[in-house]
User: What shape does this take?
Amino acid sequence: MATDFTEETAADAVVDSFAKTPDPRLRELLSGLVGHLHAFVRETEPTIAEWERAIEFLTATGQKCDDERQEFILLSDVLGFSSLVDLINAADGATESTVLGPFYVPGAPVRAMGEQLGRPEDGSPTLVRGRVTDPAGDPLDGASLDVWQSSSNGLYDTQDPRQPPFNLRGVFVTGPDGLYQFRTVRPASYPVPTDGPVGDLLRGAGRHNWRAAHIHAIVSAPGRRPVTTHIFDAENPYLDSDTVFGVKDSLVRPFRPAGPGDPPDVSYVTEMDFSLAAQDDG
Ligand SMILES: [Fe+2]
Assistant: This one.
């Protein structure tokens, strides 16, 4: 006899349909997803029109994606999912991670230590330097920093036809001392793109779309868990309301004016050390 599909039995009926999922982790994820989605629907009681609007929204989010634009990551970011997943996966003793964001492009050129990432018109010349270590503070040889940021106009190279490909992007590899340095520009706040469905969402909610100014980095080393993170500018006005919830206190650094003893070709200096946990550390 068929079980009556009612508001009371619906969630269990669907969860039960996944009971024979061979992979236990997949079964757990599907059961949890169905349980929470059904609870959401019972609680909020969407109309048919609202359900159709939700389907349209998700469809448009997928259709907005291409090789260089990832609207689903942006949606995850503005809902705080990306930062929550980062928090749950953090490794003890390692530099805190934060959102990857939608503008990462793999394959940036490997550059000489100290090299300038951008052009003079990209902003105030800034030296970024520090050391990559393990959690005990011992330097990591062969650590790779894959860094990228927007220009002072708030645009990444992939958004701005006036910037050459891989402008303000580069990979730096440490030697046995773990030290790194590179020249870039002081980062600017920028608005996340609002020409897609995520923009409709932010406008509908009366939320601003500004990111606190930052430099992105993916730091990795042999045998170490890579960290995807940012360096935030301590003087930025959006540190408390970053639209993607990416700011963590441990990632905020002063960008101090260059002084005696600093290279003469930079206006600001910021220092950031990175720590990477062993590959098998939880
Ligand atoms: Fe960014």
Notes: The pocket of fe (ii) ion is lined by residues 101, 103, 211, 214, 216 (CB under 6 Å). The radius of gyration is 22 Å. The chain has a mean pLDDT of 95. The first strand starts at residue 125 and ends at 133.
